[in-house]
Amino acid sequence: MVVLNKIYTRTGDKGDTALGNGTRVAKHSARVSAYGTSDELNAFVGVARLDATGETDTALARIQNDLFDLGADLCRPDMEQDATAEYPPLRMVTAQVERLEAEIDIMNADLKPLRSFILPGGSRLAAQLHVCRTVARRAERLATELSTVEQINPAAVKYLNRLSDWFFVAARVANDNGTADVLWVPGANR
After folding, report:
1. What whole-number distance in Å separates Cα of residue 34 and Cα of residue 144?
2. For the chain, which end, N or C, has fewer CB atoms within 10 Å of the first or last residue's CB respectively?
3. Global model pTM greater than 0.85
4. What are the phi and psi torsion angles at 17 (to 5°)?
5. In CATH, what number is assigned to the domain containing residue 44?
């Protein structure tokens, strides 16, 4: 259980922070950038939830919880020591990726195929979901960059990849099942 009775600790005043295993690293390290961006994404999902209702809001609540799982996963290096850790680290699992895929398939079933790229916008919720999509893509880029120098859980990267797709399809649903999508017109303002 987490207990936070004092919010500031002053331990990071010199520009470093503790990872999940206690190792101290620079706050600008690749690992901190990756899990920090997943936290940023979680905040944007919270903003999107202000306009979401029904199953969309329920799904976004699940995603917010998953994003905390993702942050816990990314903040914990040394996957090879997971089995011997005093407290088993929380890692993303394939079932979380598969749930996103199933939800994407359900949402996409009623959408007409795209014949053009779409611009972020349409409804307020769709615009917010597109912001979430782009931040998810940035988090994915940072996670894959991290994976070039340190070992990370492959399910974390897969989750971020599917999550950005989920936001894209959910944005189309939020735009009256795609009928209010704003289509890109190549060269329209030349």
Report:
1. 9
2. N
3. yes
4. -150, 165
5. 1.20.1200.10
